[in-house]
Amino acid sequence: MHLTMNRTPYLVPRLITFVAVALVSTLMAQERYPFGRLDEQSTTLSILRTEDGFSLHWNNVDTLHFWCVTFSTALDMSNLDTLSITSDTFYVHHDSEGLFDFGYFRVDPIDAPPPVLAPDTILSFANVPVLMSIPGEDIEPSGFTVDDTDSFDANGMSLQMHGNTWKRHIIQPHRVDSTDVWSVAAKLIQLGEVHAFGIADSANFLYYVFWGKEAPQSLNWITTYEGYFDSLEWVDFLLPVGEDWQGRFGYAPNITELRFVNDNDTVSIDGVVRYDEIRDVTNALPLVPHVEFSWTRLPDSEPDSFRIAFRSFIYDLDSPELRLNWDFGDGSRSAQINPEHSFRSNGRYPVTLSVSAQDGRCVWLTQAIVDSPVTESREAWFSFTGDVILGRGYENNNGIIESWGVDTIFAPTLQWTGEADLCCMNLECPFTTATVRHPTKGIVFKSRPENVAGLVNAGVDFVTLANNHVYDYLEAGMLETMAVLDSVGIVHNGSGMNDELARQVRFLSHDGISFAMLSFSDRTGSYNNVQPFLDAGRSRPGFAMWNRAAIDATVSEAAALSDYVIINTHSGSEYSLEPLLNGPSDIFDPLGDEDMLFELIPDTLERQIRQYAIDMGAELVIAHHPHIIQGFEVYNGKLIAHSLGNFVFDLNYAETMPSLVLRTHFDGADGVDQAIVHPVYINHWIPQPARGDLARNILDYESEMSRRLNTWLIRPAGADSAFVVFDTASVNRVSSDMIDTVELRQEGSWFTSAPFKLSADGYVQSVVVQNGAGWQVRFGRERLYSGNKEDEGASDWLLNSADETYDSTTFRSGARSIRLRRTFPNPQNVVCNNEYRLPISPFQTYSVCGWIRTQNANNALLQAQYWSGRSGGTAISIEDIGTGLNGTSDWVFRDAQLIVPANAYFVVIREVLNTPPSGTGYAWFDDIALVQWDAWSDAPASAAFPNDYHYVQVRNSVNHGTAIIEYTVDNIGIAELEAQIDLR
Predict the structure, then answer these.
(1) How far is Cα 90 from Cα 56, in angstroms, rounded to an integer?
(2) What is the pLDDT of residue 13?
(3) Do the Cβ atoms of 285 and 181 come closer than 8 Å?
(4) Which of 693, 925, 694, 691 has the alpha carbon at shortest distance from 817?
(5) Which domains are present in the chain?
(6) 546 contacts 524 by C-beta, under 8 angstroms
(7) How far apart (Å, rounded) are the C-alpha atoms in residues 592 and 445?
(8) What is the rounded distance in angstroms from the CA atom of residue 494 to the CA atom of residue 501?
(9) Given the DSSP bridges, would you call strands 920-933 and 763-769 parallel, antiparallel or unpaired?
């Protein structure tokens, strides 16, 4: 927050030296300044010794309301200590309070507004107003009264609405600016469909819903307060009408109409509500703290460092207690009033002083400490992960935390979190002992407070609390979570006792770079009518709402206080594959959960609003909530991570297991100049670094999703990490030409190849079939990420008997396969399958393929098992992939295009071995794939760069016997990047 209050230079007499009581009156110094022209009589300061200290007195000035009394031991007043902020014209200081034997008092007038003004009443029902019907809505026009049976204020009159009625009242144009706040008093008597207050001008209208059984979903309806306050008591609702209106409609209106709603279309018993006292309280709100600070370089500095003494000048005219926090720009902090700190020589350090009042209102001041010449480089590696919970399954009896400790969860990825200069996570699980849960949410989380040690030991510096679970255990759980984080020094924001507190900026720093952290969410629960909703309002706690109004109110200001603004946003639809831009998602998902929503209101279309945050000054936007990974986007040279997926989460859905760690390099002058993406797989709830083909599958999927957002994410050949290309013209693509021959087999009227896995490590760009004409080609994507059976970070194959095992002695490729064993006369077959059901779409075509080797086998084969849901239920059917193998055979390829039954949305790949006629039978399975195909196209076929195509298939209406496939693969040469990109 920018400072709006400063000490003025026309001050009263200062430098009053006291040596002995007898000398005080003769040592008064009086100075005159060009501003104000205060005369000597009005500014006389006297000091008298009392029995236990000193008594200071000065004359009042009509135009001044507050005075600041300070003390210094230095003649130049360079090390001021603030003793008092007072509206009196005297101050008594006791010896017991501790002063040096020799020093100087100073009394300054504070250039501040007078005590808060009374609210401006816009409408009072003391005089019965003219209420007109709202066209099309006022079903029972006479369903209201203005009477004196109950009222909020002393006027004794209020509006009671008891029918299905909507009313409006015309007022003189009332200008509303972005910072204006109104208050409306209301009291619920009987719950109806919707009880709301509204404002309108000639072009637009805006409603605030206070209570109701339904939650309107529209740009024009704000549901923040709905369901939060009890009935049968008056509530004075604070409404930030200025920022809400400008954030939605983009201009400052002249309000000409007030609206009152008591909608009862769908209820059997009409709701009843009272309204009273509509006021503009903008000038009656509490004042924010005032902050200044100065510094002095101390003489005892070392050759490679220098030491600074800081002096703060802070006060709050309506809060007796203030809390300070210094961020020195090098990662160090202090809560002292006047700290000292040592800095490395020849550096630039943005020092930020944050001052919070008792009610949480906070202001900040940032000033740069520069030791010239500046030769120290300023850089920071900042890591980001996805959603983190440390409760539920992690805490259950014999869970990971109980069995192995919370550090076990984070240990495999410490190379990216603990070794980073700074690390940020989305904490989606309150640390609380509270037992009263949200009354209507179906899914709530909490974790024992001591589990915060996992975050500390993982190197976490900041967590965002702006998410749909911070309020799972209501106010008590939210506040305890914040206190737990404070106790271990983890910086946080995104939640608070009102919306202004929830969206307050917090600061991190490293190596002379300051970061302003902002956190928001839009997953309020209103779309599912889960009352009370989760977003904070001016009169209720919750998370900071993610919308244009909040961006306008915070981002530009945060940018002025820091080097770079980083935004965490918890938004988007769960399990959606890509962020929305212009309309509803076309992604098919038959089964959502508590927060599934495919079409958001226009104000929060994800890509659009994230881009808007960049336009307003954000350097980096990190998005959470979909639970699955989404693409990266470079927008106007800045980075948006649309979803990093889960990081520590106890879900059992296949699509939620891939995760990402984003490691960004900040240059002090240029911002983010490197963005490295490390693939992670949540292996039985522990995030593991992905390697080999698993890493390739995850990263190539991300490359495809990022390309759809006009961004290149490139995985160099042989690398297990990828990097974002900020300038595509700055890198050179290297092409490789490959030729392979594949056999054809007849499928209906076509002669078709089996699925062919591309052997080159890169991104296929073109496919040409050399022999003959009339060829068609289709590209395929891998959807089974661990089908190669290697130890690469995932262990998703269910090996639940002694007859199912990984075999490192027999394999087709890599270092191991899965071996099944069955001995006569066991009557049951042995089956191994992937643990998590894989989602499939009825609008896509799929094949399953893989390799089988046998010894004395009976009907060893692959199968596809179809399901309608992610878990539970009964399988719809099982489809064999080709024919089974009997006896002994070397590696044999099997494939089939799936014939997906109706209502099948998930598939499981089964590896099966039946009991042999005698002895012991064996079957080995390796390089299994689930391929999702694009549509057929005429050859030659081309593909965009980069992509996630790993397979091709060709066909022709003429039987050529074989097809000679020539394909080109592009990549970025790793050698040219090693000096620029750190892929570790």
Answers:
(1) 5
(2) 31
(3) yes
(4) 925
(5) 14-110 (2.60.40.10), 120-284 (2.60.120.430), 290-370 (2.60.40.10), 380-674 (3.60.21.10), 732-783+934-976 (2.60.120), 804-933 (2.60.120.260)
(6) no
(7) 18
(8) 8
(9) unpaired
Nearest in space to 949 (alpha carbons), one of 969, 973, 963: 969
Tell which residue, 211, 309, 310, 300, has the closest CA to residue 261.
211
The total of other beta-carbon atoms located within 10 Å of residue 625's CB is 24
pLDDT of residue 9: 27
DSSP state of 636: T
Closest CA to 160 of 175, 177, 142, 146: 146
What would you report as the CA-atom Rg of the chain, rounded to the nearest whole angstrom? 34
Provide the total of helices (H) and of strands (E) in the chain, helices listed first. 10, 61
Say how far apart CA 554 and CA 548 lie, in whole Å.
Answer: 10
Distance in angstroms (rounded) separating the CA atoms of residues 629 and 659:
6
pLDDT of the residue at 100 = 52
Distance CA 545, CA 67 (A): 38
pLDDT in tens, 798-843: 999 999 999 999 999 999 999 999 999 999 999 999 999 999 999 9
Structure tokens at 805: 């095992």
The strands making up 104-110's β-sheet, listed across from edge to edge, are: 14-17, 104-110, 66-72, 81-86
Question: What is 405-461 written as a DSSP string?
Answer: -THHHHGGGHHHHTTSSEEEEEE-S-B-------SS-S----B-GGGGHHHHHTT--
| DSSP code per residue over 459-506 | T--EEE--STTTTTTHHHHHHHHHHHHHHHT-EEESEESSHHHHT--E
Residues in contact with 221: Cβ distance below 8 Å, sequence separation at least 6, in sequence order: 196, 207, 209
For position 113, what pLDDT does the model report? 62
Sign of CA dihedral 596, 602, 606, 609: negative
Instruction: Name the token pair of 364.
Output: 């900040």
Could you tell me the CA-to-CA distances from 928 to 222, 784, 913, 947, 948 in Å, in that order? 51, 8, 16, 21, 17
Q: How many residues does the chain have?
A: 984
Return d(Cα 590, Cα 194) in angstroms, integer: 30
Residue 516 and residue 486: Cα distance in Å, rounded?
18
Per-residue tokens: 246: 């400008």
Please enumerate in sequence order all residues whose Cβ is within 8 A of that of 631, keeping only pairs 6 or more positions apart, or say none.
Answer: 578, 579, 642, 702, 704, 705, 706, 707, 708, 709, 711, 713
What are the phi and psi torsion angles at 477 (to 5°)? -65, -40
52, burial (CB in 10 Å: exposed 0-12, middle 13-18, buried 19+): exposed
User: Which segment of 82-91, 143-152, 609-618, 918-927 scores lowest on mean pLDDT?
Assistant: 82-91
Determine which helix (DSSP H) or strand (DSSP E) holds 921, and give its type and residue range: strand 920-933
Q: Rounded distance, CA 390 to CA 543, Å? A: 20
Nearest of 260, 278, 233 to residue 162 by alpha carbon = 260
Distance CA 213, CA 223 (A): 11
531: its two tokens = 């009352």
Beta strands across the sheet bearing 322-327: 333-334, 322-327, 348-357, 362-370
Give pTM, 2 decimals: 0.89
Residue bearing the bigger pLDDT, 6 or 808:
808
pLDDT in tens, 604-652: 488 999 999 999 999 999 999 989 999 999 999 999 999 999 999 999 9
Residue type, 48: L
Mean of pLDDT over the chain:
89
pLDDT level of residue 52 (50, 70, 90 thresholds): confident
Contacts of 515 (CB under 8 A, 6+ apart): 382, 422, 507, 508, 509, 562, 563, 564, 565, 566, 666
Q: Which residue has the higher pLDDT, 52 or 822?
A: 822
Burial 594-618 (b: 16+ CB within 10 A, else e): ebebbebbebbbbbebbbbbbebbb
